[in-house]
TrEMBL record, chain A:
Keywords: Membrane, Transmembrane, Transmembrane helix. This is Ba3-type terminal oxidase subunit CbaD. The chain crosses the membrane at residues 46-65. It comes from the Archaea.
TrEMBL record, chain B:
GO terms for biological process: aerobic respiration. The chain crosses the membrane at residues 38-58, 78-101, 113-138, 158-179, 199-224, 244-266, 278-298, 318-339, 360-380, 400-420, 432-452, 488-508, 542-563. The lineage of its organism: Archaea, Methanobacteriati, Methanobacteriota, Stenosarchaea group, Halobacteria. It is found in: Membrane. Keywords: Electron transport, Heme, Iron, Membrane, Metal-binding, Respiratory chain, Transmembrane, Transmembrane helix, Transport. This is Cytochrome c oxidase subunit 1. Coiled coil: none annotated. SUPFAM superfamilies: Cytochrome c oxidase subunit I-like. PANTHER family: CYTOCHROME C OXIDASE SUBUNIT 1 (PTHR10422), CYTOCHROME C OXIDASE SUBUNIT I (PTHR10422:SF40). Its main location: membrane. Belongs to the heme-copper respiratory oxidase family. It is a multi-pass membrane protein. InterPro entries: Ba3-like_Oxidase_I (IPR033943), Cyt_c_oxase-like_su1_dom (IPR023616), Cyt_c_oxase-like_su1_sf (IPR036927), Cyt_C_Oxase_1 (IPR000883), Cyt_c_Oxase_su1_BS (IPR023615). One of its GO terms (cellular component) is membrane.
Amino acid sequence: MTATEAEAETDSAVVGEETYADGTLVRDPDIEESLSQDEYDPKGTLALLLVYFLILALMWTYMYFVEFLGNGATVIG
Amino acid sequence: MSTPGETAGETVDSAREMLPDNSFLIQYPHVSRVVRSLFLTAFVAFGIGAFMGVLQALHRTGVARLVDSADYYTLLTLHGVLLVIVFTIFFLAGVFAWANTRSLDRPPVSKRFTWFWVATMSVGTAMAGIAILAGLIPSTDISADVLFTFYAPLQAHPIFYIGLAVFIIGTWLAGIDWFRQYLAWRRENAGERIPLQSFMVLTTMLMWFIATMGVAVEVVVFLIPWSLGIMPAPNPLLTRTLFWFFGHPVVYFWLMPAYLLWYTVLPKIAGGRLFSDPLARVVFVLFLLLSTPVGIHHQYVDPGIAEGFKFIAMTNTMFLLLPSLLTAFTVVASIEHGARQRGGTGYFGWLKALPWRDPAFTGMALAGLMFAAGGFSGMINAGMNINYLVHNTIWVPGHFHLTVGTAVALTFMAASYWLVPRITGRKLYSRPIGLFQVVLWFIGMVFMSAAMHRGGLAGIPRRTAEPQYPQVTFETVAGSVSSLRLQLAFGGVLLFVSALLFLMNVGLTAMNNKPARNLDSALPPALSGPDQSPTVLDNLKLWALIAVVLVILAYSLPLYSIVQGAGLYPAGQEASPAVIAPLLEVIA
Ligand code: HEM
Ligand SMILES: [Cu+2]
């Protein structure tokens, strides 16, 4: 256990006969393939994060209208 | 404390026979018992806390007032303390006991010591809980209506503070237990990288040791002597500052176990592998360094703290966004890896290849999504100027029900669906109910939290039994205040139903006669392993030292100026219940 965690690139038996969580969802070896670090390019992650940053920027803009245009000036200090 | 798994002897035996030899329950029956007992306390606290939550949601919106408004603070204290101190910390102690043992592949050094800290935490919790509950019985003069932020001048009965102190000591002993377990491993594995889960447990506990110094001083030096009548009332600003010294990092104490589950368990459930082990380590080190020197961001409107100190706290806070953004990347990339291994394609199409029917997966994924939304409102809270807009409004509970109330709580519920079969040997009672429950929590929280955020923007205060004032009309940006109230109450009811379904499902799992199967507890290795990272990452002493230095830099001057300002015990300071009690009689 320790070994699997601490050692890099042990590709063996990562995909195989295994079941999920409570044993109900069985993996299908037909459609599964093992993707190593070099073969894998997380472009979906990039896409999702870009969407998130876009939403953040829009929400910030929205807050600007609420804070500065919706109310009078805020006194600081 | 009963241990569910041990009650029906025969079934457990037959269940255990079916488990593979490498399953956690077979290898570590004792640790499994410890985890079960910690989870039991956590779930009881969760149930009571959720009940208080729905009472509050119905009460403050005026939908149904089932209790006297004068008792609102007792309920609110119970809600806060039971959920963010008892539920979260007992559950995470269970997760850490499991994770440290699993990843070091060896049991704790002493069984008696382990039970000793479990007992210490439990006794402390019972004392604090009794003090709060006694507030509902007027004939006792015991009460602790001080909310989970418990600083002066609100005063509780000494048994509340003593209980808190005992509880904190229990968590320290737990940390010591996990360090001893690690050191025993280290003696046999000189020169090896610390296994990832253990690394996460240890860095989190180092952070916790530093963070709890503030609350320990607050409680032991000031609050206990004051509540016993030995010492005068302390400087409220000082106790507030000591509280928030602890009050921000405690947020990461809840969150880091959730991250541990996202980094190590979630990729496996998704059928993939952790994207990068070194990145995970960097994130935990950053949390150790930056969690504590930011607490003053909770005090942006406190008079008596110079703006410059607040500015430093804000800057540190913005840096603290970094590890959370790194986490978003690493965790999503690990899940995507699983989806692609299982045939997923395209920029967004891979999302369809994820195991959405597994409540453990879906719960954690929805928890992560909520956390992303909480990231937005957190950035608003963190800004010194824009904080004025939302400070002490219901926006703030809207924010932290996304973070601790969902990112953490929903992750813990989802993880329970995965972990409880592993520590009981029993099959999950119902997967569909589990799935329904986690989705229901998500939907309930969308309603409740959105209504809270919007209500806060309209200026509706938090911590208020009856925020309806004839002289004041709250102006919302869109929609009416009465519709916001209904949404808040509706969301609260959905959340409560979801909590009940969860407790029922887990309870029936603990009593399930069907044995769990195929509970492999090995976790797949990271795509990019630890040997590609500098070993200095594992130098815990170095990081702990830097963390302490940062805390000293951030806090010594503010604390000094607070003590210089009003002193430790300003004259004329009075305890608050003495003021509040007659006031409530006037209102009632
Ligand atoms: C059944 C689910 C829940 C409901 C209906 C609920 C409802 C509420 C409401 C309405 C408030 C605001 C009260 C006020 O300011 O007047 C509140 C406060 C709070 N909730 Fe929840 N909540 C739930 C679950 C949770 C969970 C799971 C957590 C954390 C793990 C949590 C932590 C808190 C905290 C810390 C407060 C602030 C208490 C204070 O101001 O002292 N809640 N909750
Ligand atoms: Cu904070």
